[in-house]
Amino acid sequence: MRAARVRPTSPEGTPYGFPGNVAPSSAIEIHQDVPKPQISKPGELLIQVKASTVYKDNLEWNELYPPSHATLGNDFSGIVVAVHDSEKTFRVADHVYGMTHANRGGTWAEYTIVMTEEAVKKPDNLSWEEAAAIPGSAITADQALFRHTELETTAQNGPKRVLITGAGGGIGTFLVQFAVLAGHHVVAASSSNERNEPFLHSIGAHEVVEYKDFGTLDKVDVIIDSVGFQILADCWSVIKPDGTLLSFDACSWGYIQDHKEKGISKGKEGVRALFMIAEPSTESMARITEHVAKGHIKGRVSRVVSFNDVREAYESAHSRGVGHGKIVVLI
Ligand SMILES: NC(=O)c1ccc[n+]([C@@H]2O[C@H](COP(=O)([O-])OP(=O)(O)OC[C@H]3O[C@@H](n4cnc5c(N)ncnc54)[C@H](OP(=O)(O)O)[C@@H]3O)[C@@H](O)[C@H]2O)c1
What we know:
By secondary structure, the chain is α/β, with parallel strands linked by helices. It has 2 domains: about 5-135 and about 300-330, Medium-chain alcohol dehydrogenases, catalytic domain (Quinone Oxidoreductase, Chain A, domain 1), CATH 3.90.180; about 140-275, 3-Layer(aba) Sandwich (Rossmann fold), CATH 3.40.50. The chain has helices spanning about 130, 135-150, 170-180, 195-200, 230-235, 255-260, 280-295, 310-315, and strands spanning about 5, 30, 45-55, 75-85, 95-100, 110-115, 120, 160-165, 185-190, 205-210, 220-225, 240-245, 270-275, 300-305, 325-330. The strands form 3 sheets. Strands 3, 4, 5, 6, 7, 14 and 15 form a 7-stranded mixed sheet that branches. A 6-stranded parallel sheet has the order 10-9-8-11-12-13, with helices on both faces. About 45% of the residues are buried. Bound molecules: NADP nicotinamide-adenine-dinucleotide phosphate (NAP). The site of NADP nicotinamide-adenine-dinucleotide phosphate has 28 residues, from helix 2 and helix 3. NADP nicotinamide-adenine-dinucleotide phosphate binds near residues 169 and 226.
């Protein structure tokens, strides 16, 4: 079967991995003769993958490198083609969608094994492409807001003031929608109001701001950052002294210590600073699928690419496109 994998070493033979030698996009290779995986234990499903997605900075994910997985891709929509004899929830021919664990990947392939807790049944109102565009981004947003930051899912004790950076991005779009649906006051930040303001208001943002205008904002209770770098550093100036700042940007995993050492977070010692890695979760997917079924959210697809174009698609995920939504790969 076909699968898109990361070559484990450079042409000179140096192993890719952390620290410091992240694979370049040229290390993404399509293999035609990868053995089709087989179910080997309870809890596994064999999926014929229909669609997956592209993540900016995927090659920066520590989990990608040995001793973990080599086949890229975490989001999937597809058809169950084999189950373990003990399987109770899923049947062959079920249409499912979900996200594999960051340390396994595996969905840029015609067939992949997923664990039952990584899949849920796909609502009929979603195409394969729309379904694949949801899980990883929506799970990351759901867990950032309601698990790690511990925002109330119904704002019973009053709305919090929540700032979201990269609000027009793949995950930012879900962060804005989920925080608004939960009843919080959302300030959506991006690098360009011209490019993003009408869209961000259309998905419910109460305020829209460009990063360069952070100084004009009233302080916020919670910041969820998806951009990192200087934007994340600037967040310290906008957070309340007892607020919560969370980043999941792939390049920002060491930011708390780094900002402390550089004095960037000085004077904000009362802020709860967090970094997170999203995990497959049936609880998150149930909440997300309920929103999808009710029509509150949908999978936004900016572009659909063929399997042979995954490398180019990965590169283009790092330039600002005109549309909002995920790049979806047809498998
Ligand atoms: N920790 C986890 O569990 C986890 C899970 C999934 C993804 N991630 C990571 O989370 C980050 C955000 O993912 P995403 O899918 O939301 O990304 P995305 O949609 O591609 O980008 C998010 C935002 O980054 C900004 N940006 C800054 N520099 C950019 C550039 N050179 N090109 C394009 N956009 C740029 C853009 O906002 P403006 O246009 O407003 O500047 C964009 O909306 C990535 O680093 C990804 O790897 C982490």
